[in-house]
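Friendly challenge for the regulars: who can give me the structure tokens for this chain first? No prize, just bragging rights.
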Amino acid sequence: MSIIYSVIFLLLIISLAVCTIAARKSPRVIGGSVAFLNCALIPPVLGNLLLLVSNGVMISAVGCYLYFIGMDLVLFSLINFSVKYCESAEIMKKVSKGAYVLLAVDSLQIFLNLITGHVFSMDETYIEGALRYSFVPHAGLAFHRVVNYGILVAIVVIYIIMIFRMPRIYRERYSVILYSILLGGAWMMLNIIDRSQINTSMIGLALSGIVIYHFAVRYKPMRLLDRMLSNIVSEMTEAMFVFDPTHKCIWANEQGCRMAGCTENELEKAVEVLVEMFGDPKRHSDSKVLERKVGSGKDMRHYTLEENITTDENGRVTGSYLSIRDVTEEKIKIEREMYFANHDRLTGLYTKEHFFDGINEVLNSKTKEEYYIVFVDVHNFKLVNDILGVTFGDYALKMIADWIRRNMTERCRYGRLEGDTFGMLIPVSDFDAARIEDELTHFIVKNGKASYQLLIHLGVYKVDSSTDRDISVMFDRAHLAITSIQDEYNTHIAYYNKELREKVLWDQSISGQLEDAIKRRDICPYLQPIADVNGDIIGAEALARWIHPERGFLSPISFIPVFEKNGMIIEVDRYMWRCACEILSDWQKKGLDMFISVNISPKDFYFMDVVSEICSLADEYAIDRHKLRIEITETVMMTEGEDRVKILDSMRAKGFLVEMDDFGSGYSSLNMLKDIPVDVLKIDMKFLDSTGDREKGRTIVKNIISLSEELGISSLTEGVETEEQYRLLSRMGCRMFQGYYFAKPMPVDDITKLIMDGQNKE
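First reply, four minutes later:
Bragging rights claimed.
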């Protein structure tokens, strides 16, 4: 029997060595701890083997020391393994510190047995008639056993706690380790109680180490994985079905059972239900992923079906699984996003980009049909928002969009460009101008108690398929057509024509020539004299004139409005201010005591520091600032009035005089006279026109002159063309005059000669 046990112990030592090497090479994190544990089990097994085969006292004693100290090492390695295996168990980490100290103390006292003999001594014994030596326990061995079994019990308790704390599906990984430790510990306890001559408990201890190696390093907990995967799949929102190789449904998650309308015991019905709902996938497509629609209208649902085949290591089909996902909400979201990517959110019409793409598609189709590009604009739409509110304004835009839809055919394209502007592409044959004019004449928007009649203008451009390529340019031309009826209320449709085209080309041409015209002084100042009550010239107004090298003298109306619109007027004004300073400087040298009025455009205030510019020029030419008068119009004060008042105050404080031009021709009010800091009021002679009630006109002019005088503001009447007007205004109290009665605007040299001749006569 001893030979059999010897062979068993030897085989166990070899097995433990193999497990140690294999665990050490394992890539798993726990591999090092498992290798340490299996290696630690070799000394106590080897010690028992020496006791079993040796008949010498020295070798038998070595076997005892290997066994006792080896058991301390086994428990040390078991604690180390358990700490890493039970990572979340803080109690294991706390127990390990005290256990390491106890094991170290126990190992030390076993070594001291060589001197003191307090742990064990050797005694002769016979096993199967052969002389052998066994240990005789003393007091120190009791301490050793208490430490070993106490630590072992603590480890067992901790594993039991871990089993009860963890979810059920994770208990397997701890329960197997616990059972193997209990097996080894119980076997050792029985061996002590039985007092057998051969310590067979080493077999159980070694087997525990091998079991731990297998479970911790080699074993894959398939039942654990099966439960986990089952729970995961059951909690998925997708419906899952698993089929065997014969296409019989063998498993379905909760969502799958609900979809198929069956229980876990009725899964054979699932295939029939699925085919009825989605059809047979193999008949429709070879793709693994299919899309299916179920139902109709508002009840329609969208699904994606994905089927995968599973095979074994030999490539044989072992079954398949089908995943069905309800993607209705995703589909609706995508469709909504795609809709709003191409449609305006407020009106539901196409966006500008998608609308232009539609126009390109039509025009590139090589159709022989002729088309109109129509630009739709709401006149003064800002007033609608200001008066009736943004909500009413949005409602009005929706009504315009509805009107466009009603008037469009399938051959038309239409969309919202931006703000209150819309666009249409209409076949010429479908464009009913008379009907549209009639509908727009009575376009009234009503929302609750509020109502408003919108003035809608349509600019129409006929597409020339042989030349037109840029859609934006075509809409610009259609928009340009609206400018010809911008202030008309009885006409709603305007057509782009050759004259408008020529105007656009002309505007572009002169805008491109402005810089060179200023450099060459083709643009030059003409001065219109200003006379006093005696008819003597006391100053002049500087007016821009263009002597074109090819077209000759250009009327100001042909270029000033263009530059006002595109903002280039600031270059003209800056140049005219410099010219005025040059003239005043020259007049000062010639002893001429005259002033010059220069115009300031509203746009000058947006693009430059007007005060700084004019002061800099006055200083550069060393002129008397009172001789350079700043002439503004009432439109300058229409926006940012408070800021403009501060600017005018600053200019007056720096020595310049400020004139208000064209008073009475626009939106002038007495409030302006109160708030605006001006020195001179230029009164428009339109009050004395032959049309209307002349007596009322005279009364108004007389009172304006009288009022200005009382306010300390000088009056200057412009547009005086006859002696009768001059005499009449003089009697009313006016002291300065400007108009053709005295002189037309003239070149600088001519007015200089005129002034000097007048002074020489005196």
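The two ends are 159 Å apart (CA to CA). The chain has a mean pLDDT of 84. Your move, everyone else.
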